[in-house]
Amino acid sequence: MIGVTLDRVSKKFGAAKGVENVDVHIKPGEFFTFLGPSGCGKTTTLRMIAGFYYPSDGRILFGEQNVTNMPPNKRNTGMVFQNYALFPHMTVFENIAFGLQVRKQGKAEIHDKVTRAQKLVHLDGYGQRRIDQLSGGQQQRVALARALVIEPNILLLDEPLSNLDAKLREETRQEIKRLQLELGITTIYVTHDQSEAMSMSDRIMVMKDGVVQQIGAPHEIYNRPVNRFVASFIGESNLWEGTVERLEGGMVDVRLTPDVLLTGLAENASPECKLAVGQKVTLSVRPEAIREAGPTEYGEPNTMAAKVLLSEFTGISVNYIAQAGPLSVKAMFVGQGHRMRNRDEDVWFTVARDSIYFLE
Ligand SMILES: Nc1ncnc2c1ncn2[C@@H]1O[C@H](COP(=O)(O)OP(=O)(O)O)[C@@H](O)[C@H]1O
Ligand SMILES: [Mg+2]
User: Fold this and answer.
1) CA atoms within 13 A of residue 288's CA, in its CB half-sphere
2) Pairing, β 203-208 against β 31-35
3) 59-63, 218-222, 291-295: the lowest-pLDDT one
4) Contact assessment for residue 60 and residue 75, using Cβ atoms and an 8 Å cutoff
5) Cα 246 from Cα 254, distance rounded (Å)
6) 38 in contact with ligand 1, CB cutoff 6 A
7) Within 13 A of 48's CA, how many CA atoms are on the CB side?
């Protein structure tokens, strides 16, 4: 197993920005994900690791070895693309064997390795099928086998699930995760889908406009986002603006509206947020951190009275959009379909102190 280091790597395309100053160390055996909206530079960064692009600036290391200017075929990486990039007129076997034939391996060895790779992705017995006789999910598994059969040091996956329908996407996601754990291979995964990133990754690098926003474990990114962009891109969040009224004993009182005052913990602040009395701050509160209170609890700390604008039952949860004076509130209650409130009903919410996170 080897790690990958991007040492202040940038890529410019003429005047266009590409990516800027990406600085990260991916550990041996890690499942590491580049996450961000379309155009933020995920593919560009991955292609530099594969050697399909060379950086305009900075260095790329595999372990201790500087590979910055090494051609792709010398790097021993396996790559899976969004559109599979298989040879449609060739069989499953021929597609998987391709990389081994290029490497001039013997017939018996190729047969052994391809058979094993087919087994690994649950395609035993499919060797003689043509690619155009397979479903999308099966095609993606051929692509995965083709990448793995060469026994790469690093597995690179660029949005491998985005052409699959929802059910198959989840199955294949678990399949990729299982393979990665089984093989222990250093894996770099690209996606714009936050739930995919959250569920699969050891760590995630969130990108926007070619610039890294945050690197961390899924729970860190989710619970301690560094800025508004990360807070709203990773899952749903209420982003409320207010003014610090009091700062005492590790507690922060923030005035959101004349009727709503929330108290949070000063330690739950992003590094960019320096709390001080009189200062404007943005609060991030996850919808699932909000609880329903009774009218008698209104006036207690961290409660608010609101009116339901929209309610929906998803099966797993009841989701509300409600209005508390000028404040818009998104709330989510798990498994409470039996007492769902309708439009225009009054509700009372309470926000736990430790679920408030202070942003810039
Ligand atoms: N070959 C290229 N020539 C010019 N601009 C490019 C090229 N590849 C990517 N870009 C630009 O670089 C930025 C990042 O693109 P990309 O890495 O493909 O984003 P993502 O994979 O996150 O959707 C975009 O603005 C894109 O238009
Ligand atoms: Mg891309």
Assistant:
1) 8
2) parallel
3) 291-295
4) no
5) 7
6) yes
7) 29
Ligand 1 neighbour 313 (Cβ under 6 A): no
Identify the CATH number of the domain in which residue 250 sits.
2.40.50.140
Give me ligand 2 centre to Cα 115, in Å: 31
Three-state DSSP at 327 gives strand
Tell me: do 253 and 153 sit in the same domain.
no
Assess whether the C-beta atom of 15 lies below 6 angstroms from ligand 1.
no
> Per-residue pLDDT averaged across 339-357, rounded?
93
How many Å lie between the centroid of ligand 2 and the Cα of residue 36?
Answer: 9
Ligand 1: which atom is nearest the Cα of residue 190? Answer: 21
Full residue range of the structural domain in which residue 337 is found: 236-359
Which residue's CA is the closest to the ligand 1 atom numbered 5? 13
> Are 284 and 291 spatial neighbours (Cβ–Cβ below 8 Å)?
no
What are the phi and psi torsion angles at 258 (to 5°)? -55, -30
Predicted local distance difference test score (pLDDT) of residue 166 = 86
**Is residue 331 within a helix (H) or strand (E), and if so which, with residue range?**
strand 327-334
**Residues 179, 241 within the same domain:** no
Q: Convert the pLDDT of each residue in 78-105 to its tens digit.
A: 999 988 889 999 999 999 999 899 888 9
Coil/strand/helix, residue 36: coil
- Please determine, for residue 337, whether its predicted confidence score (pLDDT) is greater than 80: no
What CATH number does the domain containing 138 carry?
A: 3.40.50.300
CB within 8 A of 188, min separation 6: which ones? 4, 26, 32, 33, 34, 46, 49, 154, 155, 156, 157
Q: Would you say the CB of residue 18 lies under 6 angstroms from ligand 1? A: yes
* CA 47 to ligand 2 center in whole angstroms: 10
Counting the structural domains of the chain, the total is: 2
- Enter the pTM of the model: 0.91
